[in-house]
Design goal:
This protein is of the alpha/beta class and 415 residues long. It folds into 2 domains: 16-41 and 94-333, 2-Layer Sandwich (BirA Bifunctional Protein, domain 2), CATH 3.30.930; 344-412, no CATH class. Helices cover 37% and strands 19% of the residues. It has helices at 16-35, 49-52, 74-79, 96-106, 150-165, 178-187, 195-202, 205-219, 227-236, 239-243, 253-265, 309-314, 327-333, 354-366, 381-390; strands spanning 39-40, 46-48, 66-68, 87-91, 114-123, 135-144, 172-177, 271-273, 287-292, 301-305, 320-326, 344-348, 372-376, 395-399, 410-412. The strands form 3 sheets. The chain has an 8-stranded mixed sheet. A 4-stranded mixed sheet has the order 13-12-14-15, sandwiched between helices. Helix 1 (16-35) packs antiparallel against helix 5. The model has no long low-confidence stretch (mean pLDDT 88).
């Protein structure tokens, strides 16, 4: 028998109170997204290795929990050239790759423009740390089949409505476009074959600072004595600074025009133009965005346009854009008030027949109570009521035996 019975590292158990809290936040997220016309779908927790290792997941593909093939024997182990040769499935590392596979499987049954919601756990075999787990919940919305900016506008509009409903009023949406990033790298003279690696280094700006990024770019062969100053200017760039004067040489005018149109369509959202925003996934093709909050060094979510992904599964390109909320970080920020479902506990003496207790419970539920628990009376009633209050039961009734539901004296737990 192990001395410590704990969940696997980077994974967690949730006690009833925390589980209720999480479900209430998830319910709010689902309800708001549904009100914006999105339909919820569900995909398997495992996908084929050919999808999980298709080159679309960036570094996340290195963190896949692989599932060994059935029927492996010693000869198969000896013949394997790598561990992946022994696996045909893996736990999903995000919800976007499964969505692409789902759409390719069911396109004929879906509308021309499909608005999807997915709320589900994902798994990554990374080093656990504060706010970062090996199993965590993602809340994704995606619009497939809409090539114009309406998709991005809907995604940001719906997500800012979710944040407002949860009381997260201090958030901002950082926006950029992959075409802006490519223009910056071209301005610096980065060869096309080094673009992806240069973007990886630029994405580290908030972690290693300007000098660190300059050093990493120099190691790739990117030269320029004023590179540090240019990076600083990128970090300070705002809508106003690039529209008041002549646009800087690195700015892709068409992409920036699309971002301005986005801002015009979302006057109530706090959008911030950030040309250093990269987003780690290599599948983004246009607009990208992240949710920032002053209480977190990390983003609370993000997404963008990924027009090239569906075609990898379907053989035909389909325009696509999505927004993913980091639920584990958001749930810690949300303050929940008293909930309407306050629960009723029937505290009964030991001699009350079970058939009578169950009958009372059924009557109360039929009369409109949403939650009724049968509780055997403890010697210390005061401590017992404290425990019930912590479990979400705000009212109780003592059952001695022989009472009808209408005769019960229901009192607040705090009395």
């Amino acid at each position: 028998m192990p001395s410590h019975v704990t969940p696997p590292r980077g994974m967690r158990d949730f006690l009833p109170a925390e589980k209720r809290r999480r479900e209430r936040v998830l319910s709010t997220i689902r309800d708001v997204y549904r009100s914006f016309g999105f339909d919820e779908i569900e995909t398997p927790v495992v996908e084929g290795t050919e999808y999980l290792h298709s080159g679309l997941g960036g570094d996340n593909e290195k963190q896949v929990f692989a599932v060994l093939r059935r029927g492996l024997d010693v000869e198969a182990l000896r013949a394997a050239g790598s561990p992946l040769d022994l696996a045909d499935l893996g736990l999903r590392f995000d919800l976007t790759v499964p969505l692409a596979r789902f759409y390719a499987s069911h396109r004929g049954e879906l509308p021309t423009v499909f608005r999807a919601v997915q709320v589900a756990p994902v798994w990554r075999a990374e080093k656990p740390q504060k706010g970062r787990y090996r199993q965590f919940v993602q809340c994704d919305i995606d619009i497939l089949g809409e090539a114009g900016p309406l998709a991005e506008i809907e995604l940001i509009s719906a997500t800012t409505a979710v944040l407002a409903q949860l009381g997260l009023t201090e958030t901002t949406i950082r926006v950029n476009d992959r075409r802006v990033l490519l223009g910056v790298l071209a301005h610096w003279g980065v060869p096309a074959e080094l673009t992806d690696r240069a973007l990886v280094e630029l994405d580290k700006l908030d972690k290693i600072g300007v000098e660190g990024v300059v050093a990493q770019l120099a190691a790739l062969g990117v030269e320029g004595g004023d590179l540090a100053a240019q990076l600083g200017q990128l970090g300070e760039a705002t809508w106003q600074s690039v529209t008041d004067a002549a646009p800087p040489a690195w700015l892709d005018r068409e992409a920036f025009g699309d971002l301005l149109a986005l801002r015009a369509a979302l006057p109530t959202a706090t959008l911030v133009f950030d040309p250093t925003l990269v987003r780690g996934m290599g599948y983004y093709t246009g607009t990208i965005f992240e949710v920032a909050h002053p209480d977190f060094a990390y983003s609370l979510g993000g997404g963008g346009r990924y027009d090239g992904m569906i075609g990898r599964f379907l053989g035909t390109d389909v325009p696509a854009a999505g927004f993913s909320l980091g639920f584990e970080r958001i749930v810690d920020l949300v303050e929940l008030g008293e909930h309407d479902d306050d629960g009723l506990a029937l505290v009964h003496d030991r001699g009350v027949p079970a058939v009578e207790l169950v009958s009372l419970q059924r009557e109360l539920l039929a009369a409109g109570e949403s939650r009724v628990r049968l509780v055997k009376r403890a010697k210390n009633l005061s401590n017992q009521l404290d425990g019930l209050a912590a479990a979400g039961f705000r009212r109780f009734a003592s059952v001695r035996g022989g009472e009808a539901a209408a005769d019960l004296s229901i009192r607040p737990v705090g009395d």
